[in-house]
Design goal:
Strand order of the largest sheet: 2-1-3-4-5
Distance between the termini: 15 Å
Number of strands: 5
Mean pLDDT: 91
Oligomer: single chain
Strand content: 15-25%
Structural class: alpha/beta
CATH architecture: 3-Layer(aba) Sandwich
Amino acid sequence: MNKRILVVDDEEDVLYIVGELLKQDGWDIYTERRCEPAFELSQSVEPFLCLCDLRLSNHVDGATLAGMIRRNNPYTVIICMTGELTSFDKGYLLGSVFTDILLKPIDTELLRRVTRYANDKYERWKSY
């Protein structure tokens, strides 16, 4: 079973909180604040799940990063984390490269459930 999760956010607090919470549940957590290193990390660790902030500080949005990851590993479940969401954003994001959206502040129990679901989904996709 793949236990690797990549968390990408430009806020250090989010990386720490999400990372520590998921580590407690036994997942292997990799974190990055910037797009390019996050993409390189995704290629080397091949995570089953990428939790990606929509608005990264280096002016590269999470959707661009998600598309890059999706092209190299179509089985990775990619979930957008954002504090801002319009109805246009929601339709665009779910119709493009993201599997789902989590709103900040993130509900910890929801995050745990979504993570387990993502792992199940990844394992099913990989088995075909």
